[in-house]
Write a structure and sequence with these properties.
Elements (H helix, E strand, L loop, with lengths): L4 H9 L13 E3 L2 E4 L17 H16 L9 E4 L3 E4 L2 E17 L9 E6 L3 E2 L11 H4 L31 E3 L10 E5 L4 E18 L4 E17 L6 E2 L29 E4 L2 E9 L12 E2 L2 E14 L3 E3 L3 E11 L2 E10 L5 E8 L3 E6 L2 E12 L6 E15 L15 E7 L12 E10 L14 E3 L7 E8 L4 E9 L4 E8 L6 E6 L3 E6 L6 E4 L7 E4 L1 E5 L3 E3 L11 E7 L2 E8 L8 E5 L13 E6 H4 L14 E2 L6 E8 L9 E8 L14 E5 L8 E4 L3 E5 L8 E5 L9 E5 L3 E7 L4 E8 L10 E3 L5 E4 L2 E17 L8 E3 L4 E4 L2
Parallel strand pairs: 1-54, 16-50, 29-37
Antiparallel strand pairs: 1-2, 3-54, 4-5, 4-53, 5-52, 6-49, 7-10, 8-10, 9-10, 10-11, 11-25, 12-25, 13-14, 14-16, 15-24, 16-23, 17-18, 18-19, 19-20, 21-22, 22-23, 24-25, 26-27, 27-49, 28-31, 28-48, 29-30, 30-35, 31-34, 32-33, 32-38, 34-36, 36-37, 38-39, 39-41, 40-43, 41-42, 42-45, 43-44, 45-46, ...
Length: 821
């Protein structure tokens, strides 16, 4: 067809314009004019320099012939170049646009509230699958064994038989899931391009213990392993997120990287997962090549990239993303075989100066440094057409991109997460001997251990371990001990004088009350609490029992005005008969050389036995040093050698509950009754050798400024000496010891060591994301679906500036149509 440039000019300009008022610039092919502004072909015939006049006539005739034959019926596509201008006399024309608006349709899912989770365990206990059991349970109930990955009791790092290469091998670990920590609630992963959905489960796993640290003078937490795990499952399977959403054959979901198949890549679908409580886009997936011939097994390896989009959308050639001081312009697209790239410019908005030009390939992120900043440009999809509007790119600028490469530290190209390691678990959809390429991301594990120095191995109250170092969104803090009420328990020795004329002591089965004298030294035991803190039964054949918050121990001997005195060896306990009156006392006779005298101490435990807690025990050295006698002989105090200790006192506390109900810890100290009573002391050194080992190194039986302590376990076991300030596994405190007294603060209830999982301070700051959307487009931001339902505007009347003529004149001389195809 004949090209009428005047008509084309009017149509492209988008207005009805009189031909007489238009000057159109013609049709060009590149820099060569094909048709002039009058619509006639522009033909030139060049003749040689020495041609005759007749040659010029022939050339003119040739040009005319070409012109007359230049009209051919053919579809042409032209693109209008240049800008028309509109003038109105001496002023500029303006059109009022008002009521411009975008109507958004927003779907808000159930929100996930900021939450905290508090983990409590016993002092001196392990942090494993079952807390507060003091190791009483076997692996089947206290650990997560390696095996199937599809059960609630699956080890997160299993490959279906053992642990994944590059991951931790722990089984005794504790799990925090979405039912405990609300930000871990199940998350729906949507692939809007493929129409697929996946379920994501987030969990935290930790292994460690709590204990008393002499160097810190406090209860500390040792974290051996800390892991954050994402697990994905499909709508009908436990395979995970596929690399390719459409197979290249019936089951091969691992290969779609060619340009023709790149639309099948999940990483080009802007699929969002929840990572550390925030949405991140999957920007790259690269499974390992390790052969996997089943759907049930897992292999580790490969890498995944997650990104935060700052601005994203479809750009036509020449369009740009506004990034504040600069803009990123899509200059052009180029295609060479399987390689398709976008050519972009970083432009200073104030000066329009191009700061940097570069290229980004499909499916990759290009880091461009310009003006002292790094811009991460990612290309999802492109249409490398040949006309304006047919050349476009679906792009994004990332504010952050993390690389999770299995077997390496998190984001290995940078040094922000040196102490965090990554392990990825992949499955194979349709796995078989003929299709052994892993293709589905089942698990993402980010973990650290004390070996990597992030965990100080001595977390004191207020210390925390971040869940990854950058970005820090959550942290696991050690909050110290729960608040408990204490009883001030004190053993006070009087060594300079006897206590004479203690009246109304019930010694025998008769109602008669005796008057007794306590020889020096004697020990007074007192509680800061009122009531029947201590109880004791009377001597055999006696009447009643004692119940009070105080009692005496006659370690120096007792003399009463009764014939029974000869049958009362040292060590008898004298206690008020009633907690409300001191009118009558009862005497509990010590049973002799092989005996043990137990006073129940309800504030330290309700079992009221030495083995389960809740008693104060008194033994002489002979009983304590004989394995066949008494309660404290079970504490391996059967030492041999020279000996200063005459009496041994012990406080047995209940140190467990539930599964650990029968566990107890013991605080033990000795009393050296000197020949001169005034030299008797609680605070002394005594070393000896264990039974059967007199050639080794001498050990402290009792040590000055220390007590002997027997652990409930399992963090520590056996017995040792502990200095002033020591905190027991119940939560009691050894306050002080001197020659004449020993003092404790006994916890009335079990104290627990606390961990708190919560958001890090400042982690909830807002983060702007720009989406360029056309009418009908939709996107999801932080779980909120946004759809552009309609864009409308109202255009008002045109007006001209003051003094301008009312007529508008359109000048299109600056425009030309360029044949594109």
């Amino acid at each position: 067809m004949k090209v009428n440039l005047k008509k084309i000019g009017a149509i492209v300009a988008g207005a009805t314009i009189l031909a007489s008022s238009v000057a159109f610039a013609g049709l060009w092919f590149g820099n060569t004019q094909l048709v002039n502004d009058n619509g006639a072909p522009a033909v030139k015939v060049v003749v040689g320099e020495g041609a005759a006049a007749s040659d010029g006539v022939a050339a003119a005739n040739t040009a005319a012939k070409i012109a007359s034959s230049a009209f051919k019926s053919q579809e042409l596509k032209a693109e209008l170049k240049g800008e028309p201008t509109c003038s109105a006399g001496s002023g500029e024309g303006k059109c009022a646009i008002s009521n411009e608006k975008v109507t958004l349709e927003i779907t808000v899912p159930g929100t996930i509230a900021e939450g905290t989770y508090q983990l409590q365990t016993l002092i001196g206990d392990n942090v494993d699958r079952l807390l507060i059991d003091r190791g009483a349970n076997s692996l089947s109930s206290s650990g997560y064994a390696f095996g199937s990955d599809a059960t609630d009791t699956s080890n997160p790092f299993t490959d279906s038989s053992t642990y994944l290469s590059g991951g931790p091998s722990d089984t005794s670990i504790f799990k925090v899931d979405g039912g405990m920590f609300t930000p871990f609630a199940k998350y729906t992963v949507e692939d809007p391009y493929a129409g697929k959905t996946y379920t994501e489960e987030q969990t935290l796993w930790l292994k460690g213990k709590t204990r008393y640290s002499e160097s810190k003078d406090a209860i500390v937490a040792d974290l051996d392993t800390l892991a954050y795990v994402l697990k994905f499952k499909g709508a009908t399977d436990d395979l995970g997120i596929q690399k390719c959403t459409t197979p290249t054959n019936t089951t091969l979901y691992a290969s779609c990287t060619s340009t023709s198949n790149s639309d099948y890549l999940t990483s080009t679908h802007k699929t969002q997962v929840s990572f550390l409580g925030e949405p991140w886009v999957i920007s790259e997936m690269d499974p390992p090549t390790t052969a996997l011939t089943t759907e049930t097994g897992l292999v580790s390896g490969g890498y995944v990239k997650l990104a935060k989009e700052s601005v994203t959308g479809v750009l036509n050639q020449g369009d740009s993303f506004d990034l504040g001081d600069v803009k990123i312009v899509l200059d052009d697209l180029e295609a060479h075989g399987e390689t398709v790239a976008a050519i972009v410019s970083i432009v200073d908005k104030a000066t329009e100066k191009v700061l940097k030009k570069d290229k980004a390939s499909v499916g990759t992120t290009k880091e461009i440094s310009a003006g002292g900043k790094i811009y991460r440009v990612h290309l999802y999809k492109v249409a490398p057409g040949y006309t304006y509007g047919a050349k476009w790119a679906d792009m994004a600028v990332y504010s952050k991109e993390l690389k999770l490469q299995s077997g390496s530290r998190l984001d290995p190209d940078y040094d922000n997460n040196k102490e965090w390691r990554v392990v990825l678990g992949w499955k194979n959809k349709g796995g078989a001997s003929t299709d052994d390429d892993p293709d589905s991301l089942r698990m993402v594990g980010v973990w650290t251990s004390d070996a990597y120095n992030l965990i100080n191995n001595n977390l004191v109250k207020g210390d925390y371990a971040p869940l990854v170092q950058d970005p820090v969104k959550w942290k696991l803090s050690f909050a110290g001990l729960t608040t408990v009420e204490y009883d001030s328990l004190k053993f006070t020795m009087t060594r300079d004088s006897a206590k004479n004329n203690m009246q109304y002591i019930r010694v025998t089965g008769t109602a008669d009350a005796q008057i007794c004298n306590l020889s020096a030294p004697y020990v007074y035991v007192s509680s800061s609490k009122d009531g029947a803190v201590f109880t004791v039964s009377s001597a055999a054949g006696g009447s009643g029992s004692g119940a009070s918050n105080k009692f005496y121990v006659a370690v120096g001997g007792i003399d009463c005005n009764t014939t029974d005195t000869a049958n009362m060896p040292s060590g008898a306990v004298i206690m008020p008969e009633s907690s409300t009156s001191d009118d009558y006392w009862v005497l509990r006779n010590y049973s002799g050389a092989g005996g043990t005298l137990n006073v129940t101490y309800s504030l330290a435990g309700d079992s009221q036995t030495w083995s389960s807690g809740g008693v104060i025990s008194v033994q002489n050295w002979s009983a304590a040093n004989t394995t066949a006698n008494g309660s404290m002989s079970e504490l391996r105090m059967n030492f041999s050698g020279s000996q200063l200790t005459n009496w041994v006192f012990g406080v047995s506390e209940k140190a467990g509950t539930g599964e650990s109900y029968t566990y107890s810890d013991h605080m033990i100290f000795g009393l050296d009754v000197a020949t001169q009573a005034s030299s008797s002391t609680f605070n002394y050194d005594e070393t000896t050798y264990p039974v059967g080992d007199t050639s080794g190194t001498a050990q402290y039986l009792f040590k000055k400024d220390y007590i002997r302590y027997v652990f409930a376990g399992p963090t520590d076991s056996g017995n040792t000496t502990k200095e002033e300030g020591f905190i027991t596994e119940r939560g009691s405190q050894f306050v002080a010891v001197d020659d004449e007294s020993v003092q404790f603060k006994v916890a009335k209830d079990l104290a627990y060591a606390k961990f708190v999982l919560a958001a890090a301070e400042g982690s909830s700051s807002s983060e702007a994301t720009t989406k360029i959307l056309a009418e009908g487009d939709e996107t999801t931001i932080s779980g909120v679906k946004i759809k552009v339902k309609d864009i409308s505007e109202t255009v008002g009347a045109c007006s001209v500036g003051t003094g301008a003529a009312p007529a508008c004149t359109v000048d299109t001389t600056g425009q030309s149509a360029v044949i594109m195809r």
